[in-house]
Design goal:
The chain is an all-alpha fold. It has helices at 3-16, 18-28, 32-48, 59-77, 87-117, 120-131, 136-142, 147-174.
């Protein structure tokens, strides 16, 4: 594989991991300014160490570990701040945060699969409302339905998706 293709693959993985990384960091450092600083430092470190990453291995786990060390470095720089946690507490928080962000990733994958199982009209309705950002009133006007009918349909679809996600996660846990 060419160096350009490797870089492109790495950039894709890095970009796809941003929300998970940010959620992880923000769980440990609930200060948005600090979390943004650590995310930036993490991205720089990940890019510098990109040659160490093997495409096909678990990028998310590697990136979370790098973020953990960046959080430690940030905490060390801010040692005089009375809100800095001890190392043991930080390690425990990091483990909980990693598990939580992993759960979000699994739920997102399950949601994708469940969305594909929806009937085309339901999928279009979800796309209009949540991906295109159309209001319930706009959708109702486009489809000659009442806002109440559209809201009820969206409620029914969300409930079905929630059940599908839970069923999918249970099946994966039992596998």
């Amino acid at each position: 594989m060419s160096r350009a293709a490797e870089s492109e693959g790495f950039i894709r993985l890095l970009t796809e991991s941003q929300s998970r990384l940010y959620a992880y960091i923000l769980t440990i450092l609930p200060d948005f300014v600090a979390a943004n600083e650590v995310l930036s430092d993490t991205n720089v470190t990940l890019w510098r160490k990109s040659a160490e990453f093997q495409i096909g291995t678990d990028f998310g786990a590697w990136a979370i570990r790098v973020a953990y060390f960046e959080i430690l470095a940030y905490q060390k720089r801010r040692h005089s701040d009375r809100h800095v946690f001890c190392g043991e507490l930080l390690e425990e928080m990091a483990q909980v945060a990693a598990a939580a962000t992993d759960d979000v990733g699994q739920r997102r994958l399950a949601l994708r699969g469940c969305l594909e199982k929806l009937a085309p009209p339901d999928r279009r309705l979800v796309t209009l409302r949540y991906m295109s950002g159309a209001s319930v009133q706009e959708i109702a006007g486009q489809h000659n339905k009442s806002a109440g009918a559209v809201s009820q349909a969206l409620y029914r679809i969300r409930t079905a998706l929630a059940h599908c996600i839970e069923r999918t996660l249970r099946m994966e846990a039992n596998s």
